[in-house]
Amino acid sequence: MLKRIIIFLLMLGTFCGSYAGIDTKIDPLPYSHGKTGIVFPSQLGLFKKQGQSVYSPESSGISVRYMYKDVKMDIYLYDQGIKNIPDGNSDILLQHFKQNIRDIGAIGYYTNLKAESSGTAAFTGKDYNLECLFAKFTFGEVKTGPRPPETSITYILLTGWKQHFLKVRCTFKDDADKSKEKAMNNCLDELEKILGLETLKNKGAVPAAENAFKNN
Fold first, then answer.
1. Residue 132's closest CA among 101, 88, 165?
2. Number of neighbours of residue 64 by Cβ within 10 angstroms
3. Are the CB atoms for 124 and 1 separated by under 8 Å?
4. Buried b / exposed e across 182-194, counting CB within 10 Å, b at 16+?
5. Residue 40's pLDDT is what?
6. Helices marked H in 86-166 — which ranges?
7. Which residues, other chains included, contact 119 with Cβ-Cβ below 8 Å and sequence gap of 6+?
8. Are 168 and 45 a contacting pair, CB within 8 Å?
9. For the residues of 46-71, what is the DSSP string, one character each?
10. Which of 36, 118, 162, 187 could form a disulfide with 135 if both were Cys (CB 3.0 to 4.6 A apart)?
11. Degrees (nearest 5) of the Cα angle 38, 185, 214?
12. Closest Cα partner for 34 from 179, 164, 209, 178?
């Protein structure tokens, strides 16, 4: 089960990334990521697979999109050309997350970006504990036309796994439908199953997650 520890902070963000090229396919069938062996099924909990994107250069990795109602769940695997990315939390992961925070303000797509909570989360089981950075924030999306920006909620989960950065981003409109967050948590539990976490061997000490958000 994914266990969460939330620590309130003043500022956070994430970065979608910019790439030289992209190959996007609408595809509800399972998708296998060759380098990690992870197979993304047609369905994760209540979320149905919409397709996948392969980015260029190769170090920019891939993403797989799932949908439930208006909830978007994007799962990214990439290494940015970095070798020896440790499993779970690490200094490398923290530095990468800091870069995410710095870059989000430069995109220009979001308005009224506000931190809600951040801290650590972990995929945990009898023989494994894969620590992640976990964050939640709200933002407005810039719309064309006379309509005002809509407020959305984004959850970010970032960790190291099989020499890759594994990032999950879940985004949906800020409304009273609590089933969305419940479905998201169930989806993360299902993701835990396909990662094959019983092979986890790196259980070393890691720095505190809140350090990722200081002095940026």
1. 88
2. 22
3. yes
4. ebbebbbeebbee
5. 96
6. 91-107
7. 4, 5, 6, 7, 133, 134, 135, 209, 210
8. no
9. TEEEEEEEEEESGGG-EEEEEEETTE
10. 118
11. 90
12. 164
Cα three-residue angle 184-185-190, rounded to 5 degrees:
95
Q: Are 202 and 84 in contact (CB under 8 A)?
A: no
Structure tokens belonging to residue 66: 């799932």
| Cα–Cα distance, 90 to 102 (Å, whole number) | 19
HSE (CB half, 13 Å, CA atoms) of 142? Answer: 6
* Phi and psi angles of residue 18, each rounded to the nearest 5 degrees, phi first: -125, 140
Task: Tokens for 17, please give them.
Answer: 């990334």
Q: Is 105 helix (H, G, I), strand (E, B) or coil?
A: helix
- In whole angstroms, what is the distance from residue 175 CA to residue 75 CA? 23
Summarised one tens digit per residue, pLDDT across range 33-46 is 999 999 999 999 99
Is the pLDDT reported for residue 137 higher than 60?
Answer: yes
Paired strand residues for 5: 120
| Residue 181, token pair as written in the block | 């967050």
Q: Is 201 helix (H, G, I), strand (E, B) or coil?
A: coil
Q: What is the pTM of this model?
A: 0.81
